[in-house]
Design brief:
Elements lengths: L6 H9 L12 H12 L3 E7 L9 E6 L3 H17 L6 E3 L6 E5 L3 E6 L1 H7 L1 H4 L4 E4 L12
Length: 146
């Protein structure tokens, strides 16, 4: 006997990412960018690993600020943190309107959105073949030598 899924179950299944890398650890400049965003209370921080796709960069860092002021603060923090590490964005777009600020660091791109703009453009869905790395604000656990 065949059972049908209700529409809620179907919608939930459609929203599941194809691949997740929750156990992956970010390093280098991408990790610095993520940490800077989290320090400014960015929400819904996700890194898409695009190396297995025909993309023009290796990673997307996606995050949201709750309002335009916070979006600018997150973008400023990412730029300042990476500038201190001698890494500069090759291109910045959207700073004036602060609905979606794009910071292009060549090997990775940071996208800082307002929640409404992020939902509208849905880059996670657009790049659905990319490996999705969920990011939390939990500090990494340190291994102590005994």
């Amino acid at each position: 006997m065949k059972t049908e899924k209700n529409s809620t179950e179907t919608q939930a299944a459609d929203k599941k990412p194809r691949r997740t890398g929750r156990s992956k650890r970010l390093t280098g400049d991408v990790a610095r960018a993520v940490r800077a965003a989290l320090d400014k209370k960015a929400v819904d921080v996700v890194v898409l690993d695009l190396r297995g796709t025909p993309a023009f960069t290796d990673f997307f860092v996606l995050c949201s600020g709750l309002n335009q002021r916070q979006v600018k603060a997150i973008a400023d923090a990412v730029e300042d943190t990476l500038r201190a590490a001698k890494v500069r964005a090759t291109h910045v777009e959207g700073y004036e309107h602060a609905e979606w600020i794009l910071l292009d660091f060549f090997t990775f791109i940071v996208h800082v959105f307002t929640p409404q703009t992020r939902a509208f453009y849905s880059l996670e869905r657009l790049w659905g073949d990319a490996e999705r790395i969920e990011v939390t604000d939990e500090p990494p656990t340190e291994k102590k030598d005994a």
